[in-house]
Design a protein that fits this description.
Keywords: Signal. With 124 residues, the chain is mainly α. It contains seven helices and no strands. It has one domain (3-121).
Length: 124
């Protein structure tokens, strides 16, 4: 696989991984009939924001240490799986959790996610 093709795969994977973390939990909640509402999750109470930001920041550090496309894809996958576990541990999904965030917390999350994607884009 050419480097540019591999880079495109990394960038696409980053968007998919970080944009759909906890998607399997969304489906589980829908199929089980258990309503997962934004009211049941309080980011300030359960620390999801801090956990998720730390996971993404750790991913950034790992990608910086070993800048190769295969490693970046592995780190993104592991980060996504870890975010899934955090969501599940707190009985929510990423999409529902994000609805509970204040504007400033949502901006922190989006900035950290963008930083991760930008770090992955640097790999060629």
């Amino acid at each position: 696989m050419k480097t540019s093709s591999l880079w495109k795969a990394v960038a696409l994977s980053a968007c998919i991984v970080l944009g759909t973390a906890c998607a399997s939990n969304d489906k589980k909640a829908e199929s089980s009939g258990t309503p997962e509402t934004a009211e049941s999750v309080s980011p300030a109470e359960n620390g999801i924001l801090e956990e998720v930001l730390e996971l993404i920041e750790n991913g950034i550090s790992e990608v910086k240490k070993d800048a190769n496309p295969q490693k970046a894809m592995m780190v993104m996958k592991e980060t996504s799986e870890s975010i899934d576990k955090v969501c599940e541990k707190h009985g929510t999904t990423l999409s529902e959790w994000k609805k509970t965030l204040s504007e400033s917390d949502l901006q922190k999350y989006e900035k950290t996610t963008a930083d991760f994607l930008n770090e992955c884009k640097k790999i060629k």
